[in-house]
Amino acid sequence: MSKKIAVIVAGSWGTALSRVLADNGHRVMLWTRKQAQADEINRERSNDKFLPGVKLPEGISATSDMAEAMAGAEAVLFVAPSSAMREVARQAAKVLQKDALVIHATKGYESDSLKRMSVVLSEELGRPESSIVVLSGPSHAEEVVQQHPTTIVVAAKDVSCAEAAQDLFMNHSYFRVYTNPDMVGVETAGAIKNIIALGAGLSDGLGFGDNAKAALITRGLAEIARLGDAIGANPLTFAGLAGVGDLIGTCTSQHSRNWRAGSMLAQGIPLPEVLERMGMVVEGVRTTKAAYVLARQHGVEMPITDQLYAVLFEGLSPDKAVGALMGRVRTHEIEEVATELTSKRANRSI
């Protein structure tokens, strides 16, 4: 059955997901702050700043009026950058339909509070966190909007909410959706993988090749799982689409903003210039700062994150960061993992 769905905001990912929803027969209203962008979407059927050359279906319309976007919407998809999520949610709360399903597809933390996006939405919308759905997984907007086969996951503590979101997005031609009850794990994986993608771009920019990148991805996954476990995630989540799937997709593709930013940093381009050239939000930069603090709060070892933090915010050169990682004290991979797991199980049994 066709439903009206509001999508907040009209960036590349919001527009791509709008395409999925419209292809599934739903009526999509994209919200943007800029009237000129709304006019382009409505008149030209395009959003060229974010997805150049893509023709949008008639089932998508746009507005800069939040009340118009929300009017009659049975579901709302938030795709605002993490830095803007609280402000946008506060604005949306005034006109949000009481029974509307709330979904978000933003991969990051709030910088100051270090809160996950579902927590931010819960606070601003006055909804229980259990009712909010997270959409994540390996999914480049440039490929989704071209209807290339894509598989993602929706997570919510309330399984009925996850299944409702699954029904909205699932189709049998190019977009497959799994459910997962581990909201904490899915959000953690989606956020932290952007840090590792920055590192992958940096490694490629330095010309280090596949050996280095394979090691970075593998050890990066270990960092994601360590932090996730410390804050209550299910470790199995990190072996799935939201974990290793998204990590591989983001670290190995030039579609990735974080990979491109890391590659530019390796060429000696200063961070402010990198962000200006990108012209779009690079979530991994903010997330590196958040993860650096979270790791210390929870006593979690995250050496890749530590070195990227030093590169981004303390002026460490990329080649010295690599040297610091390679020169760490020697250890045994399996014994390291076993020690961590044994310690955690013992703590949980106390």
Outline the structure in words.
This protein has an eight-stranded mixed beta sheet with strand order 3-2-1-4-5-6-7-8, with helices on both faces. The protein is α/β, with parallel strands linked by helices and 350 residues long. It contains 16 helices and eight strands. The termini are far apart. 53% of the residues lie in helices and 11% in strands. The protein has helices at 12-23, 35-44, 66-70, 85-93, 117-125, 141-144, 159-169, 183-205, 209-230, 241-251, 257-266, 271-278, 283-298, 303-313, 318-326, 333-349, and strands at residues 4-8, 27-31, 60-63, 75-78, 101-104, 133-136, 150-155, 175-180. Strand 5 (101-104), helix 5 (117-125) and strand 6 form a beta-alpha-beta unit.
Quick overview of this protein structure:
By secondary structure, the protein is of the alpha/beta class.
Q: Architecture of the largest domain, according to CATH?
A: 3-Layer(aba) Sandwich
Strand arrangement, largest sheet? Answer: 3-2-1-4-5-6-7-8
Mind summarizing the main beta sheet?
8 strands, mixed
How far apart the termini lie comes to: 50 Å
Share in β-strands: 5-15%
Low-confidence stretches: none
* CATH class membership of the largest domain: Alpha Beta
For this structure, the CATH topology of the largest domain is Rossmann fold
Order of helices and strands: EHEHEHEHEHEHEHEHHHHHHHHH
CATH superfamily of the largest domain, please? NAD(P)-binding Rossmann-like Domain
Helix percent reads 40-55%
Q: How many helical elements?
A: 16
The helix-and-strand class reads alpha/beta
- Radius of gyration, in Å, reads 20 Å
Give the averaged pLDDT, no decimals.
93
Shape: globular
Number of domain modules: 2
Find the count of extended strands (DSSP E, 2+ residues).
8
Binding site for substrate: 107, 257-258
Subcellular location: Cytoplasm
Domain Glycerol-3-phosphate dehydrogenase NAD-dependent N-terminal: 4-161
Function: Catalyzes the reduction of the glycolytic intermediate dihydroxyacetone phosphate (DHAP) to sn-glycerol 3-phosphate (G3P), the key precursor for phospholipid synthesis.
